[in-house]
Structures are given as structure tokens and as C-alpha cells.
């Protein structure tokens, strides 16, 4: 186990993963009622990735996320109540109800947005890393993207540029095996996304995304190297999503017992709990207390979101420009 | 003190003065330094047509060469802008927007709205446009209308060295994403430009010729042809207002409408393809808001709906000129109900 993890770190990591899980499981239930507009893409099952990476980050570090971005938001420190309200399209949402699930962002905590465009975050995070480098901070930029985006020109161009400019950047390929309904075994031309790293002059690392500790350790090395001026890394996190591409997806492209088998044998929260309790680092009672606390927090967020007002006609025309003659 | 410099020098001077004033201003683009990583001289090119020449020597690492990788570096400029920098990125020819448009219209343009008014993205994207260089269909287009269509972007199209400097300084200081269109044929145009820094506000058109018979609304390189036409027509007793829009988003509706309400006749001159362009936009504006004043149908002078041709014989037929503008003005003057 990583020697750098304190007891507080472990508690924080568990709380983050549990918050993401509870947030997404609750959205799964609530979306089915028809009260949530648009689409949601749930991150359940992938919690160890966002949490293992973001535990290394400071508020002035930046992340760019994806359409499956709720986990990254929570791990980077976004508050869950305004985030939930945003997904409900309410005026109290973190973006005033103008972004929604696919564009939820909080620049104050270094979260540069979920992104409705597959691969859109790659160039943006090069810019965030460039800004950190120009300002002489040791801040980093982290781009989360999926196996689908790994075939997208914007991501490939961004990795090349990050090495050319020796940017303090980390590219985290979250390979959950499916780009919408198409298997990465079909759509990715090489065995592993990380195999492409050499072509962009950076190290490529593969890590088991069900194992928080493995993600945390690999991300820690890459981020430390980036902060020290050693350039970018491509980290491929192999993991699974528990739900469909979006809510309502019947997932007929997946094996019938695929998700059940993963939940029973490789669930990241289960593996984490086993490890910290068998090593005597945390008590089960402590973890259960966090579970109760998180459940109450998410419940309160849902209740508040449902009760909150929607934006009004006056909100339609604001926030397009800082100033427009 | 004003002295004569070229349109290209005016843009370079604006960049240099703003980079000296504000350390968050950086510049990037293909060959913007020119020669990065090569064994010859540094600052070899200053961009493909030399607009950033000399800045590397003064500002070092704040001006960067990029790979030919527009999605990556235009997007990096957008991302850096959202993180406190003021990047000026060169999209060499606007024809190349096709390989990076996502970062402009889905990212830069929409951050502020999608993020509930919390994002500030002060990026400037400089780009060259226009026909006249025998550069054919993929290096000659006039695509500003496509950017003006997108809420969240500001679109600037200077016609003179004076405007180029003042509008570039405003673009850099502006807190919204700005697309800055530089006509490559105008780079060698000379004009009076003050040495000191000055900013020209967006959304303020410039009336470059005055008259009460016909309003000519135009922009960019076409301003010069329109003024030539107006001078010729004045000798024949037809007096034209020539309005240089300078920016098309925001658009100075007031100046256009005031003029048409006075003249009752409108000719719009636009170098872009005729469907859904600036000319149709201005025509619709006037038809809606100054209908009662109109004494004749609105005339539009544009290229035909074809790609920009290569052969000089064809390209010269493609680009509108002073004679065509004068002909359009004459036709609205001669219109009888």
C-alpha cells in the first residue's frame, strides 16, 4: 500500500468514492421518474479512477472531464447540492441551470467542465497546463477521457502538443470497454490505449481501475513528475461502468451477467473496504458512519433540487458575453 | 504621433504594445516564431506572412511556435484564457477552421453561458482571409459570417491600418473570445497610425464617405472598393454613405438604420459567399426595421455561389469590385415603382 496515504487520506478517499456512488445510484433511481431533463451518463463503478487521481490535486490544479463527468466533479471538490440542482435544471444549480449534466463546471475548484464533445478536453487541459507553466506555479492539468475519445484527433493532437511544449499534464484514459455501444476491442486499433504513449514521447502506464491504491500510486508518480517539469504521462485506467452509456440504455450489447459479476468480485468500494479493514487501518464502523452521512447528504441534495425554482425568462439572455455593445 | 505604416505593421505593433503592457498576453501559432527547433536563425518567419516577426526577440518564450495541429493549439489558447492568460493564437488561414472549429464554437464560445456566467475566456484568434492571392479554393475564403452566427463570439474585420491596430488592442483587452479577420491583400496597405496604444470599441461602425442618396454597408477589403465607387459616383451627382462595419458581432445597427432612414436606398457589399452571409443579414435587418424608408429594393454585391477559383482570369471575375458596386448603386437610383 502506498506509504504516502495517511488515515485522513483514506477516510477522504472513501468518502469521495461513496459520495460518487451514492450520487449516481440515486440519479439512476430519480432519472427513471422522468423529473430530470435531458440525458445523464453515470460514473458508478469507475469511482477509484477520479478519486485516485484527484486526491493528489490542489484547488489550483485543473481538470477537464467528459460527458460521464459527475465523478470527476465530486472528486475535484464540487459541492453536491448545487451540482444536483444543476442536473435538475434549476436556477440554484452550479451553472444556473444553463449547463446541465454534460456541461457542469466549477472553475473555482479547478473543474473546467464536463464536456459534451468527445475529446474536447484534451486541448483545453494543454492550455491550463500552459497557463500554470507560464505563471511559474507548479500546477498541473489533468485530462480525463474515455476509450471512445482515445481515437479522437483532438486527444491525439493534445498529447503531441503536451510533449512538444513539455507541459505539466496528465492524460487519464478511462477505458470502460465501450464507446456508447461499441466495444473498445473493435474501435481501438491497438491492444492498449497506453501503447500509444510512445508515439507521443511520453510514458504510458496501465492500471487496474477497480483498485484505488493502484490508481493513486500511478497517478501520484505521474503528477509529481509533471510538477517537477518532467512532462506529461498517459495513464490508462481499465475499469467498468455499472450502467448504460446513458440512462435508459438497455445495454443489450453487454453479456447478461457482466455487470453483476463485476459488482460481486471487483467493485472498487468493496475492494477498498476489504483492504483497509484487513490491514486494520480503518474500522468498518467508521466507514458505515460515512455511508450514513453521505446518504443523508445526497438525499438532502435531491430534496433541495426538486424544491428549487427553475430559471426564468430573464435568465435566457444573460451570461453570453462579459460585455456586448 | 501618427506616421504611415502598413496594416501588417499595425497589427504587429498592437501585439508588441499589449505584450509589453500585460505579461499575461502570449502569442502562438504555426511559424509565429519560425524556425523553432531548426538550425538556422530564430524568428525566421514570424508567421507565414510575417505578422509576428520580431516579437520573439523582444518577448522570448511568450511567443510560441506550434505543430500544425490547430485543434490542439487553438484549444490550448482557449484553455489558457480560461485560466487567466490572454492568448493570441494565429489560425493561419480561416479556411483551416474545419480542423479546429469545435474548440472555437463548442468550447470558447459557450463556456460563459454553460458555466452560468462564471467563465471569462479572453482569447483572440487571428486569422487571414480573402481572395486575391491566386491561392484558390482552400486558402481564399471569407468565412466571417460563420463565426458571427455563433453566440459568445465577437467578430472583427478591420479594413485599414488604423482600425487594425485599435481593434487588435481592444480584442486583446476584451474579456470575450474574439475572432480577428485579417485580409491578406490588405497587409501591404499603408495608412496613418498613431504610435501610442489606443483601443477602438467594438460595435461602432465608421462612416468613411458621406452622402444622402444611397447607403453602402460593407466591411474588410470591400470598404476600399466601395469608397472608390462612391468617389466615382459623386462626380456623377450620386452621393453615398459608405459604412465600414468594422465588427459584425456586435453589429452597429443604429448607424446602418440611421443612414438608410435618410437615404432610403441600400447596397450591401460583402466578399463572402452569397447565402446566409453579412449581406443577407444586413438586408434582413433593414427590411425589418427600416422598411418604410425604402425607395428601392436592397441590392447585394457579393461573389457568386461558387468556390474561389484559381486562375487569375476567374478569380478577378469572382471578387466584387468598384465597377460592380457602382452598377448596383446606379440600379437602386434608377428604380421606379
UniProtKB/TrEMBL annotation, chain A:
Dehydrogenase E1 component domain span: 16-313
Superkingdom field:
Bacteria
Swiss-Prot/TrEMBL cofactor(s): thiamine diphosphate
Alphabetized GO MF terms: pyruvate dehydrogenase (acetyl-transferring) activity
Give the GO biological process terms.
pyruvate decarboxylation to acetyl-CoA
Which InterPro entries does the protein's record reference? DH_E1, PDH_E1_Alpha_Subunit, THDP-binding
Q: What is this protein called in UniProt?
A: Pyruvate dehydrogenase E1 component alpha subunit
Q: Which organism is it from?
A: Plasticicumulans lactativorans
From TrEMBL, chain B:
Q: Which InterPro entries match?
A: THDP-binding, Transketo_C/PFOR_II, Transketolase-like_Pyr-bd, Transketolase_C
- Please list the residue ranges annotated as the Transketolase-like pyrimidine-binding domain: 5-189
Superkingdom assignment: Bacteria
- Coiled-coil regions, chain positions: none
User: Which SUPFAM superfamilies is this protein grouped with?
Assistant: Thiamin diphosphate-binding fold (THDP-binding) (SSF52518), TK C-terminal domain-like (SSF52922)
User: Any idea which UniProt keywords this protein has?
Assistant: Oxidoreductase, Pyruvate, Thiamine pyrophosphate
A GO molecular function term, named singly, is: oxidoreductase activity
> What is the protein's known function?
The branched-chain alpha-keto dehydrogenase complex catalyzes the overall conversion of alpha-keto acids to acyl-CoA and CO(2). It contains multiple copies of three enzymatic components: branched-chain alpha-keto acid decarboxylase (E1), lipoamide acyltransferase (E2) and lipoamide dehydrogenase (E3).
Official protein name in the record:
2-oxoisovalerate dehydrogenase subunit beta
Amino acid at each position: 500500500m502506498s506509504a504516502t496515504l495517511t488515515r485522513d487520506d483514506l477516510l477522504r478517499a472513501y468518502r469521495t468514492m461513496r459520495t460518487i456512488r451514492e450520487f449516481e445510484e440515486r440519479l439512476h433511481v430519480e432519472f427513471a421518474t422522468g423529473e430530470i431533463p435531458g440525458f445523464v451518463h453515470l460514473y458508478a463503478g469507475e469511482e477509484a479512477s477520479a478519486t485516485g487521481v484527484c486526491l493528489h490535486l490542489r484547488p489550483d490544479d485543473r481538470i477537464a472531464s467528459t460527458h460521464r463527468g459527475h465523478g470527476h466533479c465530486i472528486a475535484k471538490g464540487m459541492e453536491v447540492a448545487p451540482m444536483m440542482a444543476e442536473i435538475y435544471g434549476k436556477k440554484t444549480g452550479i451553472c444556473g441551470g444553463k449547463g446541465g449534466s454534460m456541461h457542469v463546471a466549477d472553475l473555482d475548484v479547478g473543474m473546467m467542465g464536463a464536456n459534451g464533445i468527445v475529446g474536447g478536453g484534451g486541448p483545453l487541459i494543454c492550455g491550463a497546463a500552459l497557463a500554470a507553466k507560464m505563471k511559474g506555479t507548479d500546477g498541473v492539468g489533468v485530462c480525463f477521457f474515455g476509450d471512445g475519445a482515445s481515437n479522437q484527433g483532438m486527444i491525439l493532437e493534445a498529447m503531441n502538443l503536451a510533449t512538444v511544449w513539455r507541459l505539466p499534464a496528465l492524460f487519464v484514459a478511462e477505458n470502460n470497454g465501450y464507446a456508447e455501444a461499441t466495444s473498445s476491442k473493435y474501435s481501438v486499433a491497438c491492444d492498449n490505449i497506453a501503447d500509444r504513449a510512445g508515439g507521443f514521447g511520453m510514458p504510458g502506464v496501465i492500471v487496474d481501475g477497480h483498485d484505488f491504491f493502484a490508481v493513486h500510486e500511478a497517478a501520484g508518480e505521474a503528477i509529481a513528475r509533471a510538477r517537477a517539469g518532467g512532462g506529461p504521462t498517459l495513464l490508462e485506467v481499465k475499469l467498468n461502468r455499472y450502467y448504460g452509456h446513458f440512462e435508459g440504455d438497455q445495454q443489450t450489447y453487454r453479456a447478461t451477467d457482466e455487470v453483476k459479476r463485476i459488482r460481486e468480485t471487483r467493485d472498487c468500494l468493496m475492494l477498498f473496504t476489504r483492504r483497509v479493514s484487513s490491514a486494520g487501518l480503518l474500522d468498518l464502523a467508521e466507514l458505515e458512519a460515512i455511508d450514513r452521512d453521505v446518504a443523508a447528504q445526497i438525499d438532502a441534495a435531491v430534496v433541495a433540487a426538486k424544491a428549487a425554482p427553475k430559471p426564468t425568462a430573464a435568465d435566457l439572455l444573460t451570461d453570453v458575453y462579459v460585455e456586448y455593445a | 504621433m501618427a506616421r504611415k505604416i502598413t496594416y501588417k505593421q499595425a497589427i504587429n505593433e498592437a501585439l508588441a504594445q499589449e505584450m509589453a503592457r500585460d505579461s499575461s498576453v502570449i502569442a502562438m501559432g504555426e511559424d509565429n516564431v519560425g524556425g523553432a527547433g531548426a538550425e538556422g536563425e530564430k524568428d525566421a518567419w514570424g508567421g507565414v506572412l510575417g505578422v509576428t516577426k520580431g516579437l520573439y526577440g523582444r518577448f522570448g518564450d511568450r511567443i510560441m511556435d506550434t505543430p500544425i495541429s490547430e485543434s490542439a493549439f487553438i484549444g490550448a489558447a482557449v484553455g489558457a484564457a480560461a485560466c487567466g492568460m490572454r492568448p493570441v493564437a494565429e489560425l493561419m488561414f480561416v479556411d483551416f477552421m474545419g480542423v479546429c472549429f469545435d474548440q472555437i464554437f463548442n468550447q470558447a464560445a459557450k463556456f460563459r453561458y454553460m458555466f452560468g456566467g462564471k467563465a471569462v475566456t479572453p482569447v483572440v484568434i487571428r486569422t487571414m482571409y480573402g481572395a486575391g492571392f491566386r491561392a484558390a479554393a482552400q486558402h481564399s475564403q471569407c468565412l466571417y459570417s460563420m463565426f458571427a452566427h455563433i453566440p459568445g463570439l465577437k467578430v472583427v474585420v478591420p479594413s485599414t491600418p488604423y482600425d487594425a491596430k485599435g481593434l487588435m488592442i481592444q480584442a486583446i483587452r476584451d474579456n470575450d473570445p474574439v475572432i480577428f479577420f485579417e485580409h491578406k491583400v490588405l497587409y501591404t496597405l499603408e495608412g496613418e497610425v498613431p504610435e501610442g496604444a489606443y483601443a477602438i470599441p467594438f460595435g461602432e461602425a465608421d462612416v468613411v464617405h458621406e452622402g444622402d442618396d444611397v447607403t453602402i454597408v460593407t466591411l474588410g477589403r470591400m470598404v476600399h472598393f466601395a469608397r472608390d465607387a462612391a468617389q466615382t459616383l459623386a462626380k456623377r451627382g450620386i452621393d453615398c454613405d459608405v459604412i465600414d462595419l468594422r465588427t459584425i458581432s456586435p453589429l452597429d445597427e443604429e448607424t446602418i438604420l440611421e443612414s438608410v432612414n435618410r437615404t432610403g436606398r441600400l447596397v450591401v457589399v460583402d466578399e463572402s459567399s452569397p447565402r446566409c452571409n453579412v449581406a443577407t443579414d444586413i438586408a434582413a435587418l433593414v427590411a425589418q426595421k427600416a422598411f418604410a424608408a425604402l425607395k428601392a429594393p436592397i441590392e447585394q454585391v457579393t461573389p457568386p455561389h461558387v468556390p474561389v477559383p484559381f486562375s487569375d482570369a476567374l478569380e478577378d471575375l469572382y471578387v466584387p469590385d468598384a465597377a460592380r458596386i457602382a452598377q448596383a448603386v446606379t440600379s437602386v437610383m434608377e428604380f421606379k415603382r
